[in-house]
Amino acid sequence: EVQLVQSGAEVKKPGESLKISCKGSGYIFTTYWIGWVRQMPGKGLEWMGIIYPGDSNTRYSPSFQGQVTISADKSINTAYLQWSSLKASDTAMYYCARRDSTAYPYWGQGTLVTVSS
Amino acid sequence: EIVLTQSPATLSLSPGERATLSCRASQSVSSYLVWYQQKPGQAPRLLIYDTSKRATGIPARFSGSGSGTDFTLTISSLEPEDFAVYYCQQHSNWAEITFGPGTKVDIK
Fold this sequence. Notes:
The complex is a heterodimer.
Chain A: E1 3-6, E2 10-12, E3 18-25, E4 34-39, E5 45-52, E6 57-60, E7 69-73, E8 78-83, E9 92-100, E10 103-107, E11 111-115
Parallel strand pairs in A: 2-11
Antiparallel strand pairs in A: 1-3, 3-8, 4-5, 4-9, 5-6, 7-8, 9-10, 9-11
Chain B: E1 4-7, E2 10-13, E3 19-25, E4 33-38, E5 45-49, E6 53-54, E7 62-67, E8 70-75, E9 85-90, E10 98-99, E11 103-107
Parallel strand pairs in B: 2-11
Antiparallel strand pairs in B: 1-3, 3-8, 4-5, 4-9, 5-6, 7-8, 9-10, 9-11
């Protein structure tokens, strides 16, 4: 069974750094792209970027380029999304999802990030 | 960037009624149009990919159609569990996908 399990909720202060994770299981992790999606409170879905764990090839949405870093450690089947300096506007639910051809059929449960002073 | 517009923003219907949701793209996305369902507190669920192909386990009451810039998701007869928010997503450029703003289907 394909599963994506994300790390738990985080509460951070503005300016702090953060790295959240997404661990894949039930499939060959290195052969599927993993994407990240933001959902701000009460809002819609925003695609942030994608990584191929096999070679760490990464693409970012123009809206998120330079704002976050997507990475992966294929030795432990885990993808990451990180911030070097959080802002209050980063408060959101973040989902990872596995790309299959032209869609994302498998999603993590989401990681809620709250940034507040 | 390809912009997706969904209409209506909210659709108020009763169980058993037919729901017709629209998604329009700012430029052609060929057939690379996807639909997701999201319920409160849950991750999105893939319903339809490549315009009209139902994902695994999706009931036949869900169907998709369209091409180019205009697409439709139809729910033939609403079940109680279908009241949710529906998002379209284009995959024309796999490295720069975008989502529509969503249509909320709520109980009339």
